[in-house]
Write a structure and sequence with these properties.
Largest sheet: 2 strands, parallel
Structural class: mainly alpha
Helix content: 55-70%
Number of strands: 2
Radius of gyration: 23 Å
Oligomer: single chain
Shape: elongated
Order of helices and strands: HHHHHHHHHHEHHE
Distance between the termini: 62 Å
Number of helices: 12
Length: about 260
């Protein structure tokens, strides 16, 4: 069961509309490392997760990712100029008006956007402004549609969690780049919050991976002698002397000799 509260997890208050910046932030709305991908991935994985604590963690983070998606959608809308202020205020209930706040609705955005359109040739920006009428599509910053192929879900708990850890680190990197390139102070406050949350999720997934390894080791497929080999095929490097696994393994600098 899901219950939606008309309140953002973290306030989003863009100061100035900028369609080019809106197009960039689309990367986290419908992109391969965005919030929709994370939400759906953790949600799907939770059903086949045998450990109740990890299942609950996946559902908690999945639900938080929906809140992140809501924030990103609000940020994009504000960067595109927001909705009509007077009409929106009339249609809103008291809680919604409180959520939006005066800084979230940009009454002069249409004039600013019309001026910017004359100089902006980004196809994603033009599609959002002209074809979609400022509506949000699940596309990335290049206009590529979201696809279920972005979702990683296999029948191995450790593999799933490692994929989740990687997803959080990739998302964190995207938000860091958005922070560098989108100079709106209100948007940057949101980016910083999301950078921090991605880092927190990464830490949680690291702990979950350790827990999952203990579970999976009990039923893991037995490995053979080949697991104790290290192939030093990039000759002259440092890896075989730096990694504990390589130091304890049998080092090969060529093919394995066949058994007689």
């Amino acid at each position: 069961m899901y219950i939606h509260k008309k309140e953002l997890l973290f306030p989003v208050q863009v100061k100035s509309p900028n369609p080019a910046h809106a197009a960039a932030v689309l990367e986290q709305f419908g992109g391969a490392n965005g919030e929709l991908k994370a939400c759906l991935q953790y949600f799907a994985q939770s059903f086949s997760t045998p450990d109740p604590a990890i299942r609950d963690l996946l559902m908690d983070i999945s639900t938080e990712e929906i809140s992140h998606l809501e924030m990103v959608g609000e940020c994009i809308t504000q960067l595109m100029g927001g909705t009509d202020k007077e009409q929106k205020m009339e249609e809103m209930g008291e809680d919604e008006r409180k959520m939006s706040g005066e800084g979230n609705l940009l009454s002069d955005a249409k004039n600013q956007i019309n001026n910017m359109m004359q100089f902006n040739f980004n196809s994603t920006v033009q599609k959002s402004m002209i074809l979609d009428g400022h509506g949000l599509d699940f596309v990335d910053s290049s206009g590529t549609p979201f696809t279920g192929n972005f979702i990683n879900n296999v029948g191995d708990l450790v593999a799933n969690l490692q994929s989740d850890l990687a997803a959080e680190l990739r998302a964190k990197k995207v938000y860091e780049e958005l922070y560098r390139h989108v100079d709106d102070p209100g948007a940057r406050e949101m980016f910083q919050f999301l950078i921090d949350r991605e880092a927190a999720h990464a830490t949680l997934f690291e702990e979950a991976i350790m827990r999952a390894k203990e579970i999976e080791n009990k039923k893991a497929h037995k490995t053979g002698d080949h697991v104790n080999m290290y192939f030093d095929l990039s000759l002259g490097g440092l890896a075989k002397n730096e990694f504990s696994f390589a130091k304890q393994a049998k080092v090969y600098e060529g093919p394995v000799e066949p058994k007689e």
